[in-house]
Amino acid sequence: MAMTLRPKFFIHSSQRDMRDLCCLGLFALLLACSQVISQNLLTMRSGLEPSTVLKEDAEQLFVEAMKLAETGDRAEANKRLDGACQLWIKGGNSEQPARARLQMGDLYRNGKQFEASLTQYRLILQIGDLSTSLKAATYNSIGEVYDQLYQADLSLPNYSKALQLARAHNDYLAEAQVLLNLASLSFKKGDISRAVELAQSAVNSSHQAKDQTETARCLGFLAQMQLKSGLLEKGHRNLDRALSLYREINDLPAQINLNCFLSGVSLSDGQLALARDQAESALKMTEDLVRVATSTPQKLRNNALRWPCWLALARAQRASGQRDEALKSYFWAVSGTVLDWWLVYAVTEKSAIGFAEERQAAYRELVDLLVELGKVEEAYNAYQYARVRTLSGLIRSRPISLSRANDPDGKMSALSSIIALRKQLLSPILNRPEREALERELSELELALAERRFQAELSDPKRRLAFSRPASLKRLQDSLPDDEFVSEFCVGNDRSFVWLISRRTIGFEILPGRRELEGKVRDYLNVLSTAPPNLQLQSRLVEQQAIAKELFTTLFGKLRNQLPVDSKLIVIPDGLLNYVPFESLIHNDRYLIEDHEISYLPSASLIELMQGPPRVALARVGQLDLLAFGDPAFPQSSKPSITRKFSPRSSAIGETLDWDTINLAPLPRTRDEVESIASLIPKERRQLYLGKDSTEKAFKQETLKKYRWIHLATHSLINERNPDRSAVVLLGGKEDEDGFLRVTEIEDLNLDSDLVTLSGCETGRGQLLSGEGIIGLSRSFLIAGSRSVIASQWAVSDISTAQLMKDFYQQLVGNVAKPAALREAKLRMLHSSLETRHPYYWAPFVIIGVP
User: Fold this and answer.
1) Residues 756-799: pLDDT tens digits?
2) Helix (H) or strand (E) run with residue 510 in it
3) Which helix (H) or strand (E) holds 816?
4) How far, in whole angstroms, is CA 69 from its chain's centroid?
5) DSSP secondary structure, 242-299, as one string
6) Where does 659-731 show beta strands of DSSP type E?
7) Rounded to an integer, what distance in angstroms lies between the CA atom of residue 826 and that of residue 829?
8) CB under 8 Å to 796, separation ≥6 — which residues?
9) Which of 403, 311, 410, 443 is nearest to 365 (CA)?
């Protein structure tokens, strides 16, 4: 019988039914097995303690959270971490959530996610029954975040708490970590001897903790501090020990940093080949780390190691005569800092300034090398990256900042409590224990407010600081009118530079190095800022003019003949030159003010940002001309002052927490000054606050943006160490204001003025920072919205200041441009009488901002 062949895939219906039955049976068998297996697993887990089950689930969630955090999924990572912590707490373990959050916070901090790390650390401190050891570790970690963001005033209290807790618990490892951080903080403040002392204590504590990793870190830092302070034998011995330990524990980042430092040491010893080898070794290790990095935190951390290696290599190459190779290495070094600055450190004002200031050397050395190679224009453009541009970034972000809620973080309520405490401290009946208790409470409240301000910046960085591109030579030239020149200075260690730029020309001159240049500047300022006795006026004038002529020649060299008479000059100073009134320098036996209108800017980027047509009276509906404050009615406990300066008293705990208006001399001539200025302006276009009405509250309650000019004739408080505490002094209220209009309060104001005049002593001074300029009162008013500020460089005379201001406003009311008006007022004083001919009387006030 013939058979019919069928394809293999064809199955008879009866066979198909049989297959389906088999499949169903097999599925039922598998289901039964799986149920048995599941039941067995449940039986096994049910035999465990509930806490064990919760622990295993929590640990699994934590592992997942850490993996997600490393890949950048922060929201999901935090969700799993929260779940893990809830399970641990449910299982009766309150310590493990703290340790987990500490580990997560460290991961975020290493990845430069500072806000996320602080959130985790603060959650730890909310856990009840937290061990002393974990509290110490948490406060230390919070301090490290603030430290990394250049918030020394915030990091120090947290380090102090951590150290106190570590010592109370005999936690030697935590003690070593905190002591090392405190040593680093002392070094940043310039106190190397204190840094050595603290680092040695950290080494001792790490030995007691028997922790090899921490011992290596402490020894490495101690060695560097010892070498910097001249303890060469001890330094080299500890350096060898640290390197040996780093290799033993395979700590590559530490080896990289130490090799960069060693390259510098070798360079200073003249061992050029060794310096280059050490830099190249550090760079190779860094590139190896970058290649193997997998997570975002690892990549960020390893990338940050690159630029110090390139800088060390560039220095070694340049010293060896390899200038072209050095140029490439310098470019790699500075490009790394630009990226880090904007992506990481531009989150707050202080971190942006601090990071850039620490890295000034790389930019300035690059500029110097470009000049050496004859690339003067490229040098100027490179130098603009050394200019931090934080001020222009803050000004650009003002529309964003003003569009937000006035007080979203509750800062005003905290400030009210602080003001109330400050007023209590003014009571004369307080005994010493009461005063010290109030000062401690005040210190804690001020710290809390500072942290709140910092947190607001950190959580919304673009609200405060927008990107501001650096100026370029071409754009700058295109923005200048035909009769305007820009003179920009760069002060370097070995030599300095000046560019004289107009719309059609670029002049350049090499100047002496920092030490020689600033020595001459100090000598000149000492002569200039001292009131000349009447009997010695002529001899003092001869002395001043001789030094002024010499300093002008030093600062301009061959460029001195390239500045046409009657041209306008914008000076962009650097270093101590920020305190020099260039009007008082002499060229061709004439003061510069006699031939030029002069104004000042912190950086060239502000010219393009702030330039625009000057306002005229009645430019906007409802706009008024003048808001003026003068002659605050301070208590009459002292004689009227002939100057407008006072010194803050120090508190018992070593920090200026408050200032006493009771000890302020009244300034009756400031009333005359304000009334004299006001007489030039119609009553309906001005608002005056004098005597008892000259209060801080009145100033803040005014609609400040409607005034074209704001004039403040009163005392000023200048704190060069902590510029946030600098203030314009007005009268306080019974409860709501203390009378000190501080920098931080000024920056929150909403101005739209052409000019703020700070008619007090040293109002143009502040904290002088490389690349950023002066941080103080004048800068805060520019941030608040004024296009320019007039401020003084030294303690001014009441009589001459009142006359200068009247003459200035007389010109201003006649629609004369601000620099021209100030120039005319100074010329009148210079030529009016012998008594006011000395620049001490007419030179201290300068105009900062857009002409």
Assistant:
1) 999 999 999 999 998 889 999 999 999 999 999 999 999 988 88
2) strand 506-512
3) none
4) 28
5) HHHHHHHHT-HHHHHHHHHHHHHHHHHTT-HHHHHHHHHHHHHHHHHHHHH--SHHHH
6) 686-691, 707-713, 716-717, 727-729
7) 5
8) 643, 644, 760, 761, 844, 845
9) 311
Whether the CA torsion 136, 142, 143, 145 is positive or negative: it is positive
Do 465 and 346 form a contact (C-beta atoms < 8 A)? yes
Q: Tell me which amino acid residue 514 is.
A: R
Please tell me the total count of domains within the chain: 3
Residue 132, CA distances (Å) to 137, 157, 158, 167 in order: 9, 17, 14, 10
Task: Judge whether 148 lies within some domain.
Answer: no
As a whole number of angstroms, the distance between CA 217 and CA 457 comes to: 32
Rg from Cα positions in the chain: 33
Q: What one-letter code names the amino acid at 70?
A: E
Q: Please count the helices (runs of H) and the strands (runs of E) in the chain.
A: 35, 18
Q: Are 489 and 771 in contact (CB under 8 A)?
A: no
Instruction: Give the model confidence (pLDDT) of 676-716 as tens digits.
Output: 999 999 999 999 999 999 999 999 999 999 999 999 999 99
The CATH number that applies at residue 538 is 3.30.420
Q: List strand residue ranges (DSSP E) for 753-806, in order.
A: 755-758, 766-769, 773-776, 788-792
The closest alpha carbon to 732, from 777, 776, 692, 688, belongs to 692
Residue 544's identity, in one-letter code, is Q
In a shared domain, residues 707 and 801: yes
Same domain, 594 and 626: no
CA distance 342 to 339: 6
Strands (E), 103-165: none
Q: What is Dmax (Cα atoms) for the chain?
A: 146
